[in-house]
Amino acid sequence: MIDSSQIKAKAIEMGFHLVGIANIDNHQDNAVEHLKSWLAAGYQADMAWMATPTREDIRAYMPEVRSLICVALNYYTPHQHSDDPQIGKISRYGWGRDYHKVVGKKLKALSNWLRSLDESVMVRYSVDTAPIQDKVWAQRAGLGWIAKNGNLITRKYGSWIFLGEVLTNLELTFDAPHTSHCGTCNRCLDACPTSAIIKPHVVDANRCIAYHTIENREPKLPQAVAKNLSGWVAGCDICQDVCPWNQRFAQETDIDDFQPYAANIQPQLTELASISEAEWDRRFRASALRRIKPNMWQRNARANLNKDE
Ligand code: B12
Ligand code: SF4
Ligand code: SF4
């Protein structure tokens, strides 16, 4: 008999900061309906892959799944962004080593350990690498709540965490879903420079700086976004920076891989505006920022320098 507390203890021993177990049935959170209405409204912009039906049905991804072991890794470091208009802002999530690699390596180790317990154990793991709603399952596993700014906030680390999960056929003891703690606060909605949080919990990617700097492959950014970039060239942390939970509870990570590469903290906009393929390749090795191609860095930097005409 494999015990849930044994699995949780092993996950913590392997370096995960939070772990919880989600039931795959009986949810009252309307997550599928919310996803459907978000897609129907076109808030996924050009991310057509968000509409894959598997995202709405975890059994379509793994028919044998009985439980999800959800984990979080804190990535916060105390470095700060610069307000110098010549310096670009890169989101904290991209400062250090690619989180897919860091979280993925630990998930692989946890999966291998589970498999070694009994030959009947089946596992699949994901860190935003499969069509699974990471935040929804993390809330169901009791790690934190999906907040008004669209991020999962934890009581211990705020929202500066990456999420991942192991799907398994094991029948485990489930944790209770986390309750919400935004209360009457609306700071993130008020602070978003492009009004991308169109109502609490709903982010329209068409307006979101994070979407446009990371995912939009068009040669030009929409005017409404370009003129409100506020220095951001890769992602955007504004709605997390203003959050009182982050201001009170952020704590430095103990994971060396998440310490920033020096060039990512205060990059010169003029350098990025003309970054070459070779320099991009050298600078963003083993980085989640590789998703942003050289021409996108140039576009994002030039828009901040008002040179995109
Ligand atoms: C698509 C995506 C994006 C898109 C869309 C953002 C979004 N909020 O959906 C873009 C490119 C904009 C984006 C940006 C960012 N992302 Co992103 N992204 C994802 C991805 C792939 C899917 C998220 C998703 O399912 N969206 C669909 C919508 C419908 O879901 P939702 O916004 O969570 O909405 C839920 C609730 O809000 C609720 N809901 C919806 N409507 C309503 C209405 C009411 C009344 C209520 C009560 C509830 C409710 O139901 C929904 C669930 O079905 C996940 C990885 C994954 N596989 O899950 C990472 C993920 C969410 N991203 C992540 C990160 C780090 C970011 C950024 C912070 C990066 C940055 N600094 O720039 C920003 C944050 C932007 C923001 N404010 O959300 C992390 C978040 C970690 C955390 N602490 O939450 C994730 C989980 C990746 C990971 N594995 O760690 N992202
Ligand atoms: S990431 Fe930036 S643009 Fe997107 S919702 Fe948050 S504050 Fe608004
Ligand atoms: S700023 Fe306020 S409303 Fe927004 S996520 Fe944080 S607590 Fe919730």
Backbone shape:
globular
* Radius of gyration over all CA atoms, rounded: 20 Å
Bound molecules: cobalamin, iron/sulfur cluster
Order of helices and strands: HEHHEEHEHEEEHEEHHEHHHHHH
Biggest sheet features: 4 strands, antiparallel
Number of domains: 2
Mean pLDDT figure: 97
Number of strands: 10
Tell me what portion of residues adopts beta-strand conformation: 5-15%
Cα separation of the termini: 65 Å
- List unreliable stretches of 5+ residues: none
Q: How much helicity do the residues have?
A: 25-40%
* Alpha-beta content class: alpha+beta
Record the strand order, biggest sheet: 1-2-7-4
- Count helical runs: 14
SSE topology:
Blueprint: H1 4-13, E1 18-23, H2 31-40, H3 58-61, E2 67-74, E3 89-90, H4 99-117, E4 123-126, H5 134-140, E5 145-146, E6 152-153, E7 161-168, H6 187-191, E8 197-199, E9 202-203, H7 209-214, H8 223-226, E10 232-234, H9 238-241, H10 244-249, H11 262-265, H12 269-273, H13 277-283, H14 294-304
Parallel strand pairs: 3-10
Antiparallel strand pairs: 1-2, 2-7, 4-7, 5-6, 8-9
The protein binds cobalamin (B12) and iron/sulfur cluster (2 copies).
Describe this structure in words.
Helices cover 33% and strands 13% of the residues. The chain is α+β, with helices and mostly antiparallel strands and 309 residues long. The strands form four sheets. The protein has a four-stranded antiparallel β-sheet, with helices on both faces. The chain has a two-stranded parallel ribbon with strand order 3-10. A two-stranded antiparallel sheet has the order 5-6. The chain binds cobalamin and iron/sulfur cluster (2 copies). One iron/sulfur cluster is lined by residues 147-149, 182, 185-188, 242-245.
